[in-house]
Amino acid sequence: MFSKFTSILQHAVEALAPSLPLQEDFVYHWKAITHYYIETSDDKAPVTDTNIPSHLEQMLDVLTQEESERESGETGPCMEYLLHHKILETLYTLGKADCPPGMKQQVLSFYTKLLGRIRQPLLPHINVHRPVQKLIRLCGEVLAAPTENEEIQFLCTVCAKLKQDPYLVNFFLENKAKRGDDKDADVESLKEEMSSPDTGQQVHASADQDGPTANTSSPAHVGGASVLPGNSSSNYNLVSSLLNLTKSPDGRIVVKACEGLMLLASLPEDAAAQSLTESTALCELLTRRLTSFYQALPQSMDPLDIDTVESVNWGLDVYNLKEDAAAFTGKRALISFLSWLDYCDQLIKEAQKTAASVLARAVRDHFFVPVMEPQLMQTSEVGILTSTALLNRIIRQVTSEALLQETLYFLLGEEVGPETPTSVGHSPLRHRLIGHCDHLSDEISVTTLRLFEQLLQKPCQHVLQNLVLRNLEERSYTEWCPHKESLLYFLSSCLTSDLEEDPLFSDLSPDTRLSSPDWLNCSPPQSTEHSKHDGKTEVHKIVNSFLCLVPDEAKSSYQVEGTGYDTYLRDAHRQETVVGRWNWPGSAKPIEKCDLDKPFFEGHFLKVLFDRMGRILDQPYDVNLQVTSVLSRLALLPHPHLHEYLLDPYINLAPGCRSLFSVIVRVVGDLMLRIHRVPDFNPKLLLVRKRLLGLEPEVVDHVTLLEGVIVLEEFCKELAAIAFVKPHPPSHALEARVSGRVTRGTS
């Protein structure tokens, strides 16, 4: 109580006394602090019961006023006094000893305000960055310490200063081998300061003798130890202290520490980036927390819950279970995992390029491979479903280029050479995931197909090259012919000789063979000029080929308003693209330069999709929608070989090869046989379409077949719209990015 009264009395005296010159005022307050330690024997009283906080604040005010009265960049006598007399070194020693109790908080606050308020660069001065470095080492030593708030404020202020002048980070990289103990120097400095009768009048002479650079140091030397670029044995104490504070039980401290780490990771200095990844535990922090959050998730979760949970930015994952009406088991854990994943993604996105690559590779090596891969490779259907849905959400959320690349390499491998039937198992995880697209469980198939659809939306050429394009480079799916056969002949041959040889249609009798089906008459007649001079088939013929592929007796969209072909045209025109910068060729590789003798293998991915497409009449509606969704997304891509293989009905397929069009032709042939086996086929087809649109609740038999017919009709219209739009984009934007698929009229 007496100390507080004394403090109030002193403030009153100072307010009434005439103002001193700034330097004398500054020296007065500093001497008042040093005299306290000389005259006071009670070191147990808290610092708040003394005048020390007031004197420190007055010193800051004097320094701020002095800078405001001088030209920018000019150092005044008060600042010269602070630097010359190593006041920051002395304060560090007092703060380290925490004498009187609470002094550490006062010192941290003084450092923070000094660096934050003074505009001129202070860190280049050796008598500033050296004590700052020492004070950094004190931060984060004790978890939940009473000084945590001041510690994080101080560290973040230093990070902000380094962000403004990145080269200064070299002052904070210490060589482990040469770093010494400064305790003796600290004690001697304190003793000298306490007993010195200096009034501050010698500062100018000292400054004149030493020159303007007397109190500065080169970034190449920190604390007497040289820091060479590429020195992996350097201490990065600023990062280490922030990492310690990320373990704090106070969430606000953790968020601020993460912000500081992100600032440091973004610094462009190569030496700092190397120290960040090689000499600190940052990689371990990222992967260890990803692992712990992932392992805290329930073993079984609904894929719909995983897909629809709201996006949470890191640091903002505030969740109240009582206020959540859409709560489900594991939601809190899922939000925590996604929040930390978002932080990892943003950190890698902002990080210096070399550091970003190392951090992303660490996530792959220490999280994806040891933690997620066993979950994806397991045989439990529940486990497969949950882990695949989580992987889909991870891919959807990742935006940083480095982390996305490592994620894709983890899933698909790094191979870009052509596949062979015997090489599909070289990447076990890729092989397993593609196989899950044709799993016995329809739910697993749909979830995995959604995963691949998500992959196709990512702006990474490796996805398309690895899954599809590497198998189409030589165009060995074609057979060289000087004159292309007409579509009518192609369809007729597929529906007669090919179907008769196919085991699927081995039960055809001579009376039921499709010798001249009427539905083929609507196909465009053969034209002697059906190809342009550049080798591209005329667009309207391709469009008509797809529109006329499904026979009239199997069509029902014309009987329901709003499901016409024009709907797909409008949707296709709205598509955006991501592939313009990939420098794909504008035309297919000349046929004479292709190795047509090389056996063609469509690749594991297209094989599974085509197999699924071939069973469209016997699969559930959700599976059919997802299969056609992936195929339509591939068809939208403007690579000439992919366009030819998926959208050109006029290509001459090599023996034993199939294309998307030929697969659909076989499905239509099967449909023509089955139509006659379903009584009242057309009325039932219309009822099913209306039921899918929510217009008719009635349920009929043969639902799977009828739903498959509807999806087939809509898919053919969608392919026709894509074929029409791709050669005639409304603007160059269509050639730049594909971000969404054509919306189905029946979904």
UniProtKB/TrEMBL annotation:
Transmembrane segments: none annotated. InterPro entries: FHIP, FHIP_C, FHIP_KELAA_motif. Residues 602-694 form the FHF complex subunit HOOK-interacting protein C-terminal domain. Residues 182-194 have a biased composition (Basic and acidic residues). Residues 182-226 are annotated as: Disordered. Belongs to the FHIP family. PANTHER family: FHF COMPLEX SUBUNIT HOOK INTERACTING PROTEIN 2A, RAI16 PROTEIN-RELATED. This is FHF complex subunit HOOK-interacting protein C-terminal domain-containing protein.
